[in-house]
Amino acid sequence: MRWLITGAGGMLATDLAGLLDDAVALSRAELDIRDKDAVTRAVREHRPDVIVNCAAWTAVDDAERHEEEALAVNGHAVANLASTGARLIQISTDYVFDGTARVPYAEDAPTRPVNAYGRTKLAGELAADGHVIVRTAWLYGASGRNFVKTMIRLERERESVSVVADQHGGPTWSADLARYVATLADAPPGVHHGTNAGQTTWHGLAQEVFTLLGADPARVKPIPASDYPVPAPRPAYSVLGNPRLRDWREALGEAFVEIQAGLVAGQQP
């Protein structure tokens, strides 16, 4: 089976490309998915059975300021991929929900994003109707910038760090998600939730990182989101139900070895 992965260089795309033998991974410079003619040429050249769309505008706060530009990537461009005749696996987000729930969101729960990023990703889900949609959350991995790497760096640089403690979600290792996505080539169309099981807050995740570093987790100070104002509001609770992947603490413990090895090798924290 032939795979085409968009958004090469990102966390998930990197892990998928390393996992799948018969995969071509294209960066934005190699394939701008907003360009329908370029998408058509890429599909004609590589003849994929499955396209995994990892290309996205992921800068949440920038999307709030530039929603139309984000929509072009996260929404309109998905239609270009969905119309190629190949099976599309569209990567989406927990931010399609409003965060008012108190139990994990089911895959068929009503969507109501509270920020531009969530609205644009929901547009991508609608464009991918009839294909496979995988929602994930709080992604981290050995490649690219992410929260776990930031906490590793801050533990070295600061005596204490203040981290938001009233936003709940499911931290997800990109390598675990890649392994799951690789099983979906023949899955029926529909929405799948692809996160590691369990839930925590950003504060709880930071404390776990400090613990794995052998540092005192009490150095991570809890603060409310209101003390850390950002342009885009975040859902207070975006835990996804039916997560399908193993417990987030187990995953983080295994991922930590790989992430630290990458940092030692000089990868960007």
Output the CATH topology: Rossmann fold
Outline the low-pLDDT stretches.
Answer: none
Number of strands: 14
Structural category is: alpha/beta
Main CATH class:
Alpha Beta
Strand order in the sheet with the most strands: 2-1-3-4-5-10
β content, as a range?
Answer: 15-25%
Write down the domain tally: 1
Gyration radius over CA = 18 Å
What is the string of helix and strand elements?
Answer: EHEHEHHEHEEHEEEHEEEHEEH
CATH architecture: 3-Layer(aba) Sandwich
Ends apart, CA distance between termini: 34 Å
Family: Belongs to the dTDP-4-dehydrorhamnose reductase family.
Protein name: dTDP-4-dehydrorhamnose reductase
Enzyme class: oxidoreductase
Organism: Nonomuraea soli
Notes on the structure:
The protein contains nine helices and 14 strands. With 269 residues, it is an alpha/beta fold. It has one domain (3-264): NAD(P)-binding Rossmann-like Domain (Rossmann fold, 3-Layer(aba) Sandwich), CATH 3.40.50. Strands 2-1-3-4-5-10 form a six-stranded parallel sheet, sandwiched between helices. Strands 6-9 form a two-stranded parallel ribbon. The protein has a two-stranded parallel ribbon with strand order 7-13. It is globular, with a radius of gyration of 18 Å.
